[in-house]
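Deliverable D5.2: sample structural annotation.
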Amino acid sequence: MMARYLKRLAWIAAVIFSAALCAPAQQTDDLQQQLEQLKQQYAATTRDLTERIAALEQQIEKQKQEQEAAEEAKKGTVSVLKLAAEAAAGQSNQVGSKFQGQLPQAPTYDFLRETDTKITKLEQQVGAFEFHGYFRSGYGLNGQGGQQVAFQAPNAGAK
């Protein structure tokens, strides 16, 4: 009976020992799978970020090109204020052979300063008129063609 008990005990010990040896192998396999999944996630994230960076760089380049085109377009425009000053001074924005080489005098600092002050005065004259508010004229009639009656709030002392 004791021999049978020892055999059984040896058998149970062998099963427990073999299970203990298999457990680390399963843990190692699980860890390997987790490591592979992490590597795949890392590669996917890196690829996505690389694509996003490339898209943003293209967008920045496109914005730079649009900005340069807008600046080029601004160089060719003339302000309304400048056109009004030229028109008030009797100048024309036409360029032709009749204007080439015709200066009233040699350009000096005094002449340039005087021209600058004239342009400044013209700009001030153009910007001198301002209107803020409400203007109304005419007469009013009531529904029967009689004189218009001003509105007065109920129980108010004045209109």
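Annotation notes: The helical segments are 2-75, 80-88, 109-126. The chain is about 65% helix and 0% strand.
The annotation will be released with the project's public dataset once the embargo ends.
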